[in-house]
TrEMBL record, chain A:
The chain crosses the membrane at residues 22-44, 56-81, 87-110, 150-173, 193-212. It comes from the Bacteria. Belongs to the binding-protein-dependent transport system permease family. It is found in: Cell membrane. This is ABC transporter permease. It comes from Fictibacillus norfolkensis. NCBIfam families: PRK10782.1. Residues 18-212 form the ABC transmembrane type-1 domain.
UniProtKB/TrEMBL annotation, chain B:
PROSITE patterns: ABC_TRANSPORTER_1, ABC_TRANSPORTER_2. Pfam families: ABC_tran, NIL. Residues 2-241 form the ABC transporter domain. It comes from Fictibacillus norfolkensis. InterPro entries: AAA+_ATPase, ABC_transporter-like_ATP-bd, ABC_transporter-like_CS, ACT-like_dom_sf, MetN_ABC, MetN_ABC_transporter-like, NIL_domain, P-loop_NTPase. GO terms for molecular function: ATP binding. Keywords: Amino-acid transport, ATP-binding, Cell membrane, Membrane, Nucleotide-binding, Translocase, Transport. This is Methionine ABC transporter ATP-binding protein.
């Protein structure tokens, strides 16, 4: 039945490609989360009038974030080739995609983190200060917990962007569903392979969105 | 307990310098409820934030419990802040935490062990009357309940001073009164020094022992609440006193009355302290041959005693009127003739 509708699909290859996509997405989402959170906090905290208010540091971080956020992903992969070779040792396989994925997504998420933190009522930060909280306590007991719904919905959007980045990374040799659709589907003119790869990517995206929405709703006590 | 010496706070803005607090000296005693009243923009919010160094004064010294606040190291300042709590107009609770967790927050900051936190939170929930609401989130509470959480949270570290930043301004009159009662209760029970800022004379009247009136960054008048009520000298203070002693419609009512019944004298009597309770009018009618018509009156309780105003019309012969006025002037009541036919 399946083989009549999708004559050119090799199911074991498809499964392997799906695993690669999930692997690349999962690892890069986790690292992007922490790196983006740190960058976003740095952006927020160094902004004028804030805990570490420092105009110079703030503009340096802002420039780095803006530059990496603005480079089209496909170009970023190419630019990062020497860097990737240096830390991963190769340009092939899922691992080789990770540096580019993270460098591309973390600044994007950092901006969302910054926006989430700005939404926090200033009075709550003032209240924590008036209780004698240290800056670390303000970060971990006020800023992060009070912005969790926005942080989660932000990482959901970022995760979906990362899935599509993995597909692009696939074209330059990282494997995964994007690679399959391009190499097996487009280059060999097997439309059924392209179609089923697309369908699987859509399923992954929908599942991520659903999980993200569920978590956001359950965390939001406002 | 709290001493301010020539405290100034100047903000640099694009339009030049703004003197938010201009050379303020204050002395607040241990166990006192001290009110600072002023219209918005008078500098009272800045002033109260200078007390716990949320705002640094441009010059001058702030001493609380013998500590010069502006000279403390960051660590010492954080320790000092645990003894100077604050409650806010908009409560500033953490929405992501339950009532219990909000109250536990300052205890976590101070590094209390878990078991101690639990016990202390239980005590505080009882103290502010929030039994059974410990597991609720702030969004599930009314304004008054939120402020009770704010107060419990502020009391958690057993502070010596409580700063109230317009703590009742976002609440309806009934809830305001219940929160004010709670503040008086904790002031007496815990011998806590309370400094509050407000724009409502009602708050000053109801719970403060002493009051400072602020205008354009300066303290223009200061003293015992009853004395300020009795002898307001500045126009702004008179305005504030009128907020609670004169019903808004008084002036119109009296004017209307004078045009309709222009005979006799219209007199405003102001009672201060113990006099408010004495049967003055009975004495007036019995001893002198005058008719007395009560037009309007109001007695207000302050923390230092009652304060009241009474508008009466006195009718009688010229000589009886003169003797009646003499009598009124002889007792400890302030007399002001508003209309003399």
């Amino acid at each position: 039945m399946l083989s009549t509708w999708f004559p050119n699909v090799q199911w074991d290859v498809l499964l392997e490609a799906t695993k690669e996509t999930l692997y690349m997405s999962a690892i890069s989402v986790v690292i992007t989360f922490f790196l983006g959170l740190a960058l976003g906090l740095a952006l927020f905290l160094t902004s004028p009038g804030n805990l570490w208010g420092n105009k110079f540091l703030n503009s340096v971080i802002a420039i780095i974030v803006n530059v990496f956020r603005s480079i089209p992903f496909i170009i970023l992969i190419i630019l990062l080739i020497p860097f990737t070779r240096l830390i991963v040792g190769t340009m092939l396989g899922a691992e080789a995609a990770l540096p580019a994925l993270i460098v591309g997504a973390a600044p994007f998420y950092a901006r969302m983190v910054e926006i989430a933190l700005r939404e926090i009522n200033k009075g709550v930060i003032e209240a924590a200060k008036s209780m004698g909280a240290t800056n670390a306590q303000i970060i971990f007991k006020v800023l992060i917990p009070e912005s969790t719904p926005a942080l989660v919905s932000g990482i959901t959007v970022t995760a979906i962007a990362l899935v599509s980045y993995t597909a692009m990374a696939g074209v330059v040799g990282a494997g995964g569903l994007g690679n399959l659709a391009y190499m097996e589907g487009y280059q060999r003119d097997n439309a059924d392979v392209t179609l089923i790869s697309t369908a699987l990517i859509l399923v992954i995206v929908f599942v991520i969105q659903w999980i993200g929405d569920r978590i956001t709703t359950s965390l939001d006590k406002r | 307990m709290i001493n301010l010496q020539s405290v100034r706070k100047v903000f640099q803005t694009k339009d030049g310098e703004v003197k938010a607090v201009d050379t303020v000296d204050l002395n607040i005693k241990q166990g006192e409820i001290y009110g600072i009243i002023g219209y918005s923009g008078a500098g009272k919010s800045t002033l109260i934030r200078i007390l716990n160094m949320l705002e640094r004064p441009t010059s001058g010294t702030v001493t609380i419990g013998g500590k010069n606040m502006s000279e403390l190291s960051p660590k010492k300042l954080r320790e000092a802040r645990q003894e100077i709590s604050m409650i806010f107009q908009h409560f500033n609770l953490l929405w992501s935490r339950t009532v219990r967790e909000n109250i536990a927050f300052p205890l976590e900051i101070a590094g209390y062990p878990k078991a101690k936190i639990k016990q202390r939170v239980d005590e505080l929930i009882d103290l502010v009357g929030l039994e059974g609401r410990g597991g609720s989130y702030p969004s599930q509470l009314s304004g008054g309940q939120k402020q009770r959480v704010g107060i419990a949270r502020a009391l958690a570290n057993e502070p010596k001073v409580l700063l109230c930043d317009e703590a009742t301004s976002a609440l309806d009159p009934k809830t305001t009164d219940s929160i004010l009662d709670l503040l008086v209760e904790i002031n007496q029970k815990l011998d806590l020094t309370i400094v509050l800022i407000t724009h409502e004379m009602h708050v000053i009247r109801k719970i403060c022992h002493r009051v400072a009136v602020m205008e354009q960054g300066r303290v223009v008048e200061e003293g015992d609440v009853l004395n300020v009520f009795k002898n307001p000298t500045e126009p702004i203070t008179k305005d504030f006193v009128k907020q609670v002693t004169e019903p808004e419609e008084t002036v119109d009512t009296i004017k209307q009355f004078i045009t309709e019944f222009p005979e006799g004298r219209i007199v405003q009597l102001t009672f201060i302290g113990g006099r408010a309770g004495q049967p003055l009018i009975t004495e007036l009618i019995r001893k002198y041959e005058v008719d007395v018509n009560i037009l309007q009156g109001k007695i207000t309780q302050t923390q230092n005693g009652p304060y009241g105003t009474l508008f009466i019309q006195i009718k009688g012969t010229e000589s009886a009127l003169a003797r009646a006025m003499e009598f009124l002037n002889s007792v400890q009541v302030e007399v002001e003739v508003i209309h003399n036919a």
